[in-house]
Amino acid sequence: MSALATSATAPKRRGRGGSLAWMAVPALVFFTGFGLVPLLGVLVLSFTAWDGLGDIRFAGVDSWTTVLADPGLPHALWVTFLVMALSWAVQTPASILLGTFLANHHRYRAILSVVYFIPLLLSSAAIAIAYKALLDPNFGLGAGLQIPLLVQDWLGDPYLAFGVVIFVVSWQFIPFHSLIYQGGVRQIPRSMYEAAELDGAGRVRRFFSITLPQLKYTIITSSTLMVVGSLTFFDLIFVLTAGGPGDATRVLALDMYVRGWQASQMGLASVIAVILVLVGLVLALVLRRLGGRDTSHSQLEGA
Amino acid sequence: MGLPLGAALAACGSSGPTRPGTPSGGGGGGGATYWYLSTQPQEGVRTRTVERFNKANPNSQIAGTTFQNDAFKTKIKTAIGAGQAPTLIWGWGGGTLRSYVQAGQVDDLTSWFDENAALKDRLFPSSFGAATIDDKIYAMPCETMQPIVLYYDKRAFDKIGAQPPQTWGDIMDLVPKFNAKGIAPFALGGQSRWTNMMWLEFLFDRLGGPEVFQAVFDAEKDAWSNPVAIDALGRMQELIKADGFIKGFSSITADSNADQALLYTGKAAMMLHGGWTYGSMKQDGGDFVSGGNLGYINFPPIDGGKGDPSNTVGNPGQYMSISSKATPEQKEIAKKFFATELMGDQAVKEWVATGAVPIVKGADKEFASSDDAEFLNFVYNIAVNAKTFAQSWDQALSPTAAEVLLDNIAKLFQLSISPKEFATNMNAVIGK
């Protein structure tokens, strides 16, 4: 309410620079209501013991010590990190190549880009259910097509299950990142390529010497989305493997759900939620640092 | 105070007729609300039972809302925690009911059952165990009993020329024979975890009797380290190492009924599963059930085991509690529903028609006219003859302990932890 009141008077008092501040109000109100307030609630809950049914009991740092002493936490952190690192390592090269490929103006490429886009239109749960059915060792794709190589214990072997998660995540999100890279590549001035061509640079040389360096900020944007986004992978993994086999694919978000809803320990789940938020913030900051230092620096020298 | 909203929400998804003009109480609609599971054919029985009640009692209406199984579990817990529970709280009793009781969210029905002794007497006594917390009854047992039984495919046994197992030793002998013929000895939906748990429930019981798990339930220190428990866990891993289960069982879920499909398509020879799978195999399995290929036995004894081979485990019933936050009018309607239609004669008939055994004494009279008379009698006799009808572990324990249990069972079946490690991990959550 106070935010609304001050912003209403702001334009009169301030000069031109402040006159647009009120435009941030709707976003700010939403962010406060749906972002900050729940976050504070979770922070408070992390210092309580609550089973979701009875009274909320203040428990001091009990939940924190329990979670931090639990070997499940470093494991979940490690799995989360692996999912993050591997899905980034698979998605980034593939997306850059696909994005560059799709950036050229050819009709067949336009059609392909529509086709590539399809996985992004599907819900994660639907994708997970479909893959689960396809990978079923007895009634799935391998058994149906009589290809023994495809008949594996896909979701039952810890390594295979992990690989499947990375594959499905990549399959789902490469289209999105390709789109970002496509836009990035199209913004590179043609003159750069023309100059390089005159200098006798080949296709590969041009890619590594012009396209890649020019995509620096696009790579940072896309990587931030991938890395921070990977912290929230829940629906897909929950439906696909439910964190299994054992706890081989139990990422932080899943660990939080299991502790909160399945084991009825909201205090512990809130601790994990706070850790999740902190990890996400730190990652976003680090990635900004990596690229955002000197935004004034021109990338177009020589263009 | 959240009740009017709860009632309004329930009315939105109502499947039974709600009468907006029903006069009772002030403000919001005074009818009782009831949430239940949407799986057929059970949903139909529940819906028709409520409809009959509403027709017979124009002034006491129940509004029903259906939910999908897993959604229901989270939804009802959230609603109860938020003080917006439906009047009738449906569930599986045991540990979850205990958590409702501890939070003061459900009414004590002990004195009501004393007043309605005839009704109490009509139901199977074994079904009251999971409704009783600290010697008080907090739920009315209802619907059907679902013991876990050992199903087998007669065609598979003909192929290897063997008889159904009489002992645990027979099971271990059958494993290499089936594997040699390219048939998996047992189907298992291992990703669901509770499917694996049914095996341990029987191994514990047949080796040491119900006392072994009772000690865990009673929160005795280090109860999982009982040598019998370690022996049972070891035998479990022996069967897994001998390829007793279908290859890739950890990738298979029970929700998709893929484990049952393995049995009726002839890919697996046997399956340990709940009584409810009979109905779905009959529906999905073509002529597998109707052609007389499905066999069923109680879990065989183990040589040297102390447990009574008549014992069984599973769901001794379903349970219906009354929310303590409901209005007096709503509670009256709920009690009237309990006393009349919930397990009335027509409801019993309809439950039998779904291929399940209602928890009512003498329900076997209704079996004769059913196509499934043989199976129904088999289940009924298991329930009548069982010295103990133990509740599924994950239902009996608190949600916190149950989650740790299922997690460790999955790891035990992965062979990634030993029986001793399993016991250590589980001892840590005893009584939690």
Automatic annotation (TrEMBL), chain B:
It comes from Nonomuraea longispora. PANTHER family: ARABINOSE-BINDING PROTEIN-RELATED, BLR3389 PROTEIN. It comes from the Bacteria. InterPro entries: Bact_solute-bd_prot1 (IPR050490), SBP (IPR006059). Residues 12-22 have a biased composition (Low complexity). This is Extracellular solute-binding protein. Pfam families: SBP_bac_1. Transmembrane segments: none annotated. The lineage of its organism: Bacteria, Bacillati, Actinomycetota, Actinomycetes, Streptosporangiales.
